[in-house]
Description:
This protein has a domain at 85-265. 18% of the residues are buried. A hairpin with a 2-residue loop joins strand 7 and strand 8. It has helices spanning 22-62, 78-84, 132-139, 201-208, 213-216; strands spanning 71-74, 86-99, 102-114, 124-130, 150-153, 156-165, 168-181, 184-194, 197-199, 219-221, 231-239, 242-249. By secondary structure, it is α+β, with helices and mostly antiparallel strands. The strands form two sheets. It has a six-stranded antiparallel β-sheet. Strands 5, 6, 7, 8, 9 and 10 form a six-stranded antiparallel β-sheet that branches. The chain contains five helices and twelve strands. Helices cover 26% and strands 38% of the residues.
Amino acid sequence: MTDAYTLPFEPVGQPRRRRRVWPWIVTLVIVLVLLGSAAFGAEWLARGAVTGGIRTLIVSQLGLPADQAVDVEVTGIVIPQLISGTLDDVTVASDDVSFGQLSGDVRVNITDMPIRADAAAGPGSATVSLDETQLRALLSTVDGFPADAAGIAAPDVALSTELGAFGISIPVGVALRPAASEGDLTLTPESFTVGGAQVGADGLRSQFGVIADTVLRTWDICIAQYLPAALSLTSVAVEGSEVVADFDIDGAVIVDSTLRQDGTC
């Protein structure tokens, strides 16, 4: 007699067949790779357009040669920043940039830079580095300063000159410490050598009288006249073989054309 509830036949000892999932995994990986490649390509194009546009704007605004090498770096992924309308952090660098009699290697950093020129940027900073030749060119604009005798000897600007005493010219060396004061570059005497021997300011004055005032004075060099008014000099120091000047940048320079004009002394 046959049981009405017969179970389906299943061979004993043979495992149940499982579906293969690896083709789905491979397909998913391929899709992800293609999407990643497309996103990378879009990011690469967007970054190139942004950095190229910034470079073109800088060259035209500053009147730089068309072939001037200008490096532009935008931090982070560009596309989300373009969507938000603001670039988080932009750094621009170029060597041998000239602003009238002031020239040097320039590095500028701007934060919260708007894509459209309808809002101010965030805080910015700039650094201008001058080698010995560039420093002499700047000092040559200062009345009475023996620029050809100036050099760089960290942490000071070195000056070699001569002072007369009893009809004799005596070589005098002066170490001038650079600094920033009320927007000007200042050079203040720190130490002196006469005939190779160290002397103080009082000893120099007792030996040369009022003639010593020519090397005892502090020199004020106005550089605002060469730079956009948006830049404010904050510090100056000798670093290695260069004089390095640091500036704060007013982010309103993007919307205020007066800040893009040269400053005044």
